[in-house]
Amino acid sequence: MANRDIIRQLLEHFRRKDTRNAVVLTDENVERYYSGYFAELSGCVSMDKIVVPAGECSKSIETAIRIWQYLAEKQYDKNTFLLNFGGGMVCDLGGFVASTYKRGIPFANCPTTLLAMIDAGIGGKTGVDLQDLKNAVGTFYFPDIQLPADIILLQTLPDKEFRSGFGELVKYALIGSHELFQDLCKLESFKELKPEFLDFCIDFKQKIVKEDPLDHNLRHILNFGHTIGHAIESYYAELGDPIAHGLAVAQGLYYESLLSYKLGHLPQEEWLQIAEFLPKHFDIMPLSGELLEKLTYYMLNDKKNCNNLINFTLLDRIGHATPNFQIASDSLITFNH
Ligand SMILES: NC(=O)c1ccc[n+]([C@@H]2O[C@H](COP(=O)([O-])OP(=O)(O)OC[C@H]3O[C@@H](n4cnc5c(N)ncnc54)[C@H](O)[C@@H]3O)[C@@H](O)[C@H]2O)c1
C-alpha cells in the first residue's frame, strides 16, 4: 500500500498537467516486494512498467538504449511521465532516460533505499556508468515533483544497504549538524533511525542544491568523504568485488576527517569523537603503502581536480565544512598515523 501523500501528490500533478500515460521504472527486487504500490494511479492514468535487473550493472548506456527503444516502440510522447521507483541506481538511470527521451519528459523519483531517500533521489544529477567509470555520462535534470520519502519501504531493505545509506546520513551530520551527530552517537544500532534524521538530510540537500544547482561551488560540500570514498569504490570495483557506495563513503569520512585534523582545520577533540564513532558502525581499512598509492592514482583522476592537486572538502568542526581545498597528494601520507 503506497504512502497517501505520494499518491495524492502524483494524482494532483497528473490532473494539473493532463498526464495520460505514466511508466514506472523499477528493478526486480523492488518489483518483487512492491509490485502493486502504484495501483491506485491506474484509475487516473494509463500505467505501464519497465523492470530492469537489480544492481549497478543496469546503470549503463545499454540499459538506457533498451528503455528508449521500449518507450519509442510503445509510441510514448513527450507528456509521458516516468516514475523512478527504486534505489539510487534506478533514480540515476531513470533520470538520465527522462532527460534524453524526446529531449526530456517529466519524471519523479520515489526512492526505496535510505541512500536514495536522503541523497540520490534529490538534486537532479542523473547518469550512467561507462564500464568501471562511475557516472561518466550524465545530465542535470530536475524532477517535476519531489515526492516525500516513504520510510515503510525500508523495512525490506537488506542490512548492508541500510548501513550504506547510514554512511551518507553520517556525512550530513558531519557537514551540517553537530546535534544530529550527537544523536547518532547515542544509537545502539544504525537501524534505530528517527524520521526527523532523514528530514534533516533531505532539507539540507535541497537547500544546498537550490543555491548551487549545477554543482559549481557550494554543492561540493556534499562531496565530503567522497574523494577518498570514490577512490575506494573504484579500487574494489577493479578487484571485481564491488563495495556499496555508502560503505566506501564512510571510510572516506574517516580519512577526510583525519586529513582535516592533520591540516589544522578540525580540533583534535572533535577528530577523536569521529574516530571513535565511525569504526563502531563501519569497517575502516588501514591506508598505507601500495594501497594508498593506488587510491591516490584514482583521486588524481577525479573530475573536480586541476593542476595535479586533489580537491577536498574539509571539516572545520563537527556540523560545518568548507569545500574546494586543493591539496597535494603528498599530504595524504598523513594517513600513516
Ligand atoms: N544522483 C545522485 O546524486 C547520487 C548520489 C549518491 C549515489 N548515487 C548513485 O546511487 C547508486 C546507489 O544507490 P543505492 O545504494 O540505493 O543502490 P541500488 O539502487 O543499487 O539498491 C541497492 C539494492 O537494494 C535493493 N532495494 C532497493 N530498494 C529496496 C527495498 N525497499 N527493499 C529491498 N530491496 C531494495 C535493490 O534492488 C538493490 O539490490 C549508485 O549508482 C550511486 O552512484 C547517486
What does this molecule look like?
- This protein has 337 residues and is an alpha/beta fold.
- It folds into two domains: 4-155, 3-Layer(aba) Sandwich (Rossmann fold); 158-335, Dehydroquinate synthase-like, alpha domain (Up-down Bundle), CATH 1.20.1090.
- 46% of the residues lie in helices and 16% in strands.
- The protein has helices at residues 4-17, 28-34, 61-73, 88-100, 114-120, 159-176, 178-185, 195-211, 226-239, 245-262, 268-281, 289-300; strands at residues 21-27, 46-52, 81-86, 107-111, 125-130, 133-140, 310-317, 320-327.
- The strands form three sheets. The protein has a four-stranded parallel sheet. A two-stranded antiparallel sheet has the order 5-6. Strands 7-8 form a two-stranded antiparallel ribbon.
- Strand 7 and strand 8 (320-327) form a beta hairpin.
- Residues 27, 29-30, 33, 54-56, 59, 86-90, 92, 112-113, 115-116, 119-120, 123, 125, 134-135, 153, 156-157, 161, 164, 245 line the site of nicotinamide-adenine-dinucleotide.
Structure in a nutshell:
This protein is of the alpha/beta class.
**How are the strands ordered across the major sheet?**
2-1-3-4
Give, in order, the helices and strands: HEHEHEHEHEEHHHHHHHEE
Q: Give me the number of helical elements.
A: 12
CATH H-tier superfamily of the largest domain: Dehydroquinate synthase-like - alpha domain
In the CATH hierarchy, the third-tier topology of the largest domain is known as Dehydroquinate synthase-like, alpha domain
CATH architecture descriptor of the largest domain: Up-down Bundle
Number of strands: 8
Radius of gyration (CA) equals 20 Å
Overall shape: it is globular
**What is the share of helical residues?**
40-55%
Distance between the termini: 51 Å
The biggest sheet, with number of strands, parallel, antiparallel or mixed sense and barrel status, is:
4 strands, parallel
Number of domains: 2
User: Percent of residues in beta strands?
Assistant: 15-25%
Bound molecules: nicotinamide-adenine-dinucleotide
